[in-house]
Amino acid sequence: MGKEKKKMYFLLIAGILFVSFNLRPGITSVGPVIGMIRDDIGLSNWSAGILTSLPLIAFALISPVAPQLGKRISNERALCLGLAILAFGIGIRSLFSPFLFLGTWFVGAGIAICNVLLPGVVKEQFPEKVALLTGLYSVAMGIFASVAPGLSIPIAEKLNLGWENALLLWAVPAVIGTFLWLYISKNTRNQEDVNIRVQKKKRPKYGALS
């Protein structure tokens, strides 16, 4: 394996893991602080219920179109887009409370894109290690899904940073993942262009019949 291929190999594994880190915290971190959000903003109980249901609604609407998005712009670019949408959603719901519901919907939409396309990327990039990497990212996803709600109250109350910063924390892995997949998608595109040029050079050239 060449130096460049080895670099991309490890970057892809890191990218897959960073996607898995982001598949649950944007949702599970909200539950423990929903009471604080309700009291701070003045939400009714039914509004708080809608807030926790919005990601599921986004899943239902976005998941069916995610494969078409992957085919249109490539799975790698779609993962990058999904993480960017997730980071944007976390940011606006945490920093601008009037956009709490809209931001939460974007969180669900971003996660839906990544959730649908990640298994396909694993199969495409690591066809001989599908079981290993699927198990690895499933474990990572489970760990972060459990850690996120456990950190919400300590950050919001013990550190006195409020529910906004407790939720905003999870924009960090989303932003890192976005830039990581942006780099991967650019290099993947460049490699595809090289392969196309190589294939064109290999094609036999037929001259005019004499």
UniProtKB/TrEMBL annotation:
Highest taxon above the source species: Bacteria
InterPro entries in the record: MFS, MFS_Cyanate_Porter, MFS_dom, MFS_trans_sf
Membrane-topology annotation of the record: Multi-pass membrane protein
UniProt subcellular location: Cell membrane
Presence of keyword Transmembrane helix: yes
Keyword Nucleotide-binding: no
Domain Major facilitator superfamily (MFS) profile: 10-210
Protein name (Swiss-Prot/TrEMBL): Major facilitator superfamily (MFS) profile domain-containing protein
Organism, scientific name: Compostibacillus humi
